Amino acid sequence: MKRTEIATLGEFGLIDHLTGDIRLVQKSSIKGVGDDAAILNHGEERTLVATDLLLEGIHFDLVYTPLRHLGYKAAVVNFSDIYAMNGTPRQITLSLGISKRFSVEDLESFYNGVKLACSIHGVDIVGGDTTSSLTGFTVSITCIGSAKEEDIVYRNGAKDTDLIYLSGDLGASYMGLQLLEREKAVFDGSSDFQPDFAGKEYLLERQLKPEARRDIVTLLKEQGILPTSMIDISDGLSSDLLHICKQSNTGCQLYEERLPIDYQTAMAAEMFNMNVTTVALNGGEDYELLFTVPLTSLEAMERVTGVRLVGHMTKPEHGCHLVTRDGQEMPLRAQGWEPIAGK
Amino acid sequence: MKRTEIATLGEFGLIDHLTGDIRLVQKSSIKGVGDDAAILNHGEERTLVATDLLLEGIHFDLVYTPLRHLGYKAAVVNFSDIYAMNGTPRQITLSLGISKRFSVEDLESFYNGVKLACSIHGVDIVGGDTTSSLTGFTVSITCIGSAKEEDIVYRNGAKDTDLIYLSGDLGASYMGLQLLEREKAVFDGSSDFQPDFAGKEYLLERQLKPEARRDIVTLLKEQGILPTSMIDISDGLSSDLLHICKQSNTGCQLYEERLPIDYQTAMAAEMFNMNVTTVALNGGEDYELLFTVPLTSLEAMERVTGVRLVGHMTKPEHGCHLVTRDGQEMPLRAQGWEPIAGK
Q1: Cβ-proximal residues to B213 (8 Å cutoff; 6+ apart), any chain
Q2: What residues of B are in contact with residue A7 (Cβ under 8 Å)?
Q3: Are residues B139 and B169 in the same domain?
């Protein structure tokens, strides 16, 4: 593969090279890359802003993460934040810290992943910053979205009689990470090792190339359902549900038997001798939507595919519990991936 | 000094701790820290977005950079981008990558610097992300500003007969950096070394605690002057003036004898055996405003204090030149600090 040293382009040349083919599609993108700031016109709508910082060795391992997938994921996790507000992502800014070990082609791969995600979700790249890094690859994305004021869904709107719904399934991304980490450890000891991921493709895809659930937001709108609260699952169901309960001042009952878990996730958890419920509750990086609706929406919710009723809110004095298969109530704890405490 | 390990707070505890005392002051800040995204209402105005990524060892050295100053500078350089569009900064998001070697008090110092800058400029912190870093301290700030459509000043609006103005003076920040680097080298060899910065305070302040020139933007408005193009000096006057010329399709004549240079800068350049003109042209990190106005604004510009006429635009075929004190024309080159090419 061709390798062009970044030094041959220089900083501005590199930015021109990487962003030269970006075409703005949003009517609200008045001005994109090429000036001190991007200019957006959101007219009568609210502007939403979400931001994420991804650091090598913490959030991703380039040994098994293709740069194209990393670019895709870095964009999608920000879109997911905007969808979780019931908004529409419109623009992103993308800042990169890169070291000499990266070639122009590497960065093209990364950008192609970002551009693919943006193209699927109709989002413009309107600015950013590219600099060298003495150490790892650094990615910072800020996403700007919009929503009508009356459509915005907060974390603090749940009522103590609401139903709790969840899109997709849980734990697959975490099991995908376990697989990749194990294969990396094996690979470190033997250079001709060929990992066998047959039958585990779903887990790898969930880890390496997650999706943001625009489809769910759209389905809810079509059914005229406005959730009372919503969040995307990044830290893990326990942690994220506790955020909603804390901010809405409610308790909750979550039913273990209702947790959506894919067959591959269950198989992998067994193989790794892990409790699959713990994986589903605390794995994180699922980027599914967790939301609450009033009891009166039960019937309308039956017409929304791809989501499952997993529990209900309670009065705050009841606390936050998981109801196990045998009917016991276990306190829910935020055991999610806490990147700072863990290091 | 008290040292609280970050692990005792956890990620969310840390964020609550650091952002709990933030009060939103902007009418357009509908929702700040505490949900998936910030919500802004810019009504009929344009929204401006600027972003900067600062990495330890590349953009700052914590050996001689107090964290409070770093926080202040990280915020101010983003405000400067918004002022350079003739806009008003309104909100920022702040993402940090931190390692175990930082204490809560360290991060408080950093945040206090950010908050001071925000308070001076009337800007809200509306969101962000905090994560651990395996290596250096990482800072990513995105600033959202606003401006009326008709007030926005681009880089591409200069005409070939326009006058070129510059606020403040140049090269001091670069000489401050040279001083700090030299003292660091001396310090590395002798632990009881006491640097003597007497008479060089201005240079250190320009490097460690630069200001964004809101005052100039305000003065221009008061005089009814709308620049035809504007940029802030981050990479160096040469590099940034060439950006304007390229995007406006003009040439330029810049006069060496007109370059504003402080006495301390000149003395330090002599001490380091550097050409002070080269320092002024290519030092960078001045965060002064470089802008062009029509010839017809010459009289009104005389009522704007703190700026200096440094040259004029020309037709593009004349090229971009520095006219030296002895009347020679030297081609202007972007020799600014190019962080990627240099590594």
Answers
A1: B80, B83, B167, B168, B232, B287, B288, B289
A2: 340-341
A3: no
